[in-house]
């Protein structure tokens, strides 16, 4: 269902359109900013229904001042409006069931649901999901209203809850209704129109022309007018004040602004309103005559340069829903300071800090704010501010998600996922610091290593050892098998923490906040605010784990396949040896483990004479060309003396590793080494850790899983090797099968004569034979065993034969009756069911629900259309393989189906052995519930001979809708290498009597068909997630590519004011500054594009001294003074890339400005000289300033990529800029180093070859 957005005004025409849709049975969504008049529009719709004599819809209203988190309150409001009774604990599902029972498609429920934004995101999503089901069932017709923050729940995206077809976006009133709104709003604010119709009409016309009917913009105009009159809004006990036309700024006209790449400044309209006021700001007169106009323009430039803006995406209606703009054809007109409401409301209107805030003097306002009591500082001052703060904290989740997506899309191949984690931890630290006042010393980050120990991973925090009481709580979360979602958030004795889980839902990292010195550590509002910040971090962290887990799983899955395919190619012929096979799999294994730099295989030997146990290296990846003969066996001593196959991994340092294996001819170990047992090859594997990277828990899980699979593979390869050594080299076709009838070996004559469906050897499921071609009786006689050659039944295998499955395997012997292998015979697979249509249809199905419907229809055909079979699927829990968890069902009631598919039924192995019987035997099992509790019989059979086992009625059977006498047949879901779960067909006793004794065996193939379907579904989900990620990366790349061209559209803004200069000459100075800012912004964006894109040198003949002089004059400007050193060269003629040299100087100038001392004027000295190194001529540029300088520990990292994530000194270093300078020098074949003294100033020395710049060189970032 596609959603359609109608950009409409609040008018009678819009109300008629909504009423017509409701009369046709269509539901509607109304979106708009707060206070725009969405309920007023519903009143207009009610008036239309009343005129037609129709019943008015009921109304469910939610609070607009506080967010509701209780589902029971929401359900009661809906029940009261719907006139339905809810028994027991009210819930949204219960309300939906009542509505579906009471109302019909001919008489649906008509209801308004107002202020959806008054619910938490979880409740809103839950409610909209229920609404969508009721709307599709045609028993509900509704109109839902909400603000722009609910757009992601109704826009039809994959994560939305309701794909509403008709969505009305309202931001403005038409002329008639705008007048009614204006009178109401002015009366609330204590304002009134001037006396006289003519004067009031002129004021109304001017306000309407300025705002175009935009409600949010009208509030901004009234706010600026009231602020001009030194009249604070909503001040009680004041007589209404009349406004006149002269109070409305003359230059306040509609401004056309085109959003560029989705980036729009938050406070743009506030600055535009203030800059249009001619008289100085009244509050600023009390603050030493502060010139508000200049201050506003300075704030505007600073805000834009800092990119303090909101991201609206590539859909302009998101900007409208945020209340910042309105649509006029294809142009967005005006935005207002609606987002600034929280910043102004935060300060108490009764204090002097409010005057500083209105004057945008934020330092003084914050200074006074710090003097407030802790109770006043830690929470908002009103219910309205409380709701805004809660939405602000919820918005952190969106910000974190976008930060992860942006970082994942823009990172390079040589970067790791650690950058994403660092980014998230930095953002949550800033949120805790800016919103709640926690300093960096109180915040620490922890991770759980592969040994199960919690270690600190961040450079912040004042303690390095995890407190014991916290460690016990975290370990309890790790050990428990079932943990509620909210238990990962905790607080105790002033400590606050959150534990994060990886893609496998295992605790791996945590953030701990020390709030013991906080006087309000037990305050509910304080704990709730911390919980919200943590919840936003966890959502983004789990998304990052999902992205990282999918990438890591995909890469490791490919490498695991490569390992087994490589091993298969080397061992399938049977003529192989370990010295040749193990080196071939070492390379993909090292690529799958980036934390391992070296891999050594060792095998155990036993000295017959002394009985000593010895270890001999057979392969070393550090020296792959060393033959095994160069290694020597060493005595297994120390920890290796009593080594067994169940020994856990042992970690030794480099000294102990050299002591244990140094005499074996191995090169010395330089890092810590992990020793892991390898039962398959009867030895150990040595893993030397890479420098600076620790072996993680996921690495160990991958190794153990691979070792478990490789053990059986090694055993099969050894059996094939023995078989190959014992088989004569002849041209007789031979097949080798294992005990499960899977082909694991076929010599070339058999492959040539039989068309075999063999994929990757012994990993294949049971193999089907599609046809047997060109086989004469003599050839068939050649592959038949001697004991069967007397029989003539093989003579029937002639011509093309389709659909043959494995029937049996017989021993293959030579004339001396010595074993040589096995030979396979086949049978027609139509015996599986009377008709093969069922299996063929199931193999074509695309999802589980469709397959269950196909199976149900087939059972109806077999039994009776009046039969009511119930089919259920249980899957083994991946985290705890002792549990069978309910997953899919059909034939149950809606409530039981929902409970079942949510995992509400669990069977634990060994405690409920009957439910696991089919998995233990790997054969279908039939059970029947007792009709007589006193009957002690254990087995029985139906009249047709179907055998079953009697079982007792359990409490769980109420959800499964089992009754006495019902028969349940369990089919195991088999897969390689382990089972997935089971499929259960439940029939009434009457229907079960119609089944034949062979029924379970006839449907045995369901085990394979449904297992294959589940595996394909899981693989498709993984591929879909990867495709989503690729699409997101491509979208981000296209947005970055179009940024420079789209930014040029801002010239419309400058040109509009240029056309107004003849009306207002005073406007020229302001327009000049804005145009200069626009040109500077364009140059800045181009410079950003240069420094994040490829560094491509394009040298041209020029004087480098002149290039540097121009760059210093433009970049430093009035921020400081600069000069050439007296001993510097007067000119430097050659072939230079002027653009990159100008950008390089700009970055160093910005670095000097950021780290300048406030008590000293900035001074920069530049010197250039030539220097010879042998026969090579070099140009050396020295750049010095008198700022703070760089600390010694940071001098080696400031030119690296992503050093901007580290705090250098007391400032947050730019990182991108200085790393760009380093890459430019590297592209020139030169160097850069910092040799200044901390506290005295920075000193950069840039050295590049002189002659190497005559040819064009390219360097890719």
UniProtKB/TrEMBL annotation:
<dbReference type="Pfam" id="PF02518">
    <property type="entry name" value="HATPase_c"/>
</dbReference>
<dbReference type="InterPro" id="IPR036890">
    <property type="entry name" value="HATPase_C_sf"/>
</dbReference>
<dbReference type="InterPro" id="IPR004358">
    <property type="entry name" value="Sig_transdc_His_kin-like_C"/>
</dbReference>
<keyword id="KW-0067">ATP-binding</keyword>
<dbReference type="InterPro" id="IPR005467">
    <property type="entry name" value="His_kinase_dom"/>
</dbReference>
<dbReference type="InterPro" id="IPR027417">
    <property type="entry name" value="P-loop_NTPase"/>
</dbReference>
<dbReference type="InterPro" id="IPR050980">
    <property type="entry name" value="2C_sensor_his_kinase"/>
</dbReference>
<feature type="domain" description="Histidine kinase">
    <location>
        <begin position="1137"/>
        <end position="1252"/>
    </location>
</feature>
<keyword id="KW-0808">Transferase</keyword>
<dbReference type="InterPro" id="IPR003594">
    <property type="entry name" value="HATPase_dom"/>
</dbReference>
<protein>
    <recommendedName>
        <fullName>histidine kinase</fullName>
        <ecNumber>2.7.13.3</ecNumber>
    </recommendedName>
</protein>
<dbReference type="GO" id="GO:0005524">
    <property type="term" value="F:ATP binding"/>
</dbReference>
<keyword id="KW-0547">Nucleotide-binding</keyword>
<keyword id="KW-0418">Kinase</keyword>
<dbReference type="GO" id="GO:0004673">
    <property type="term" value="F:protein histidine kinase activity"/>
</dbReference>
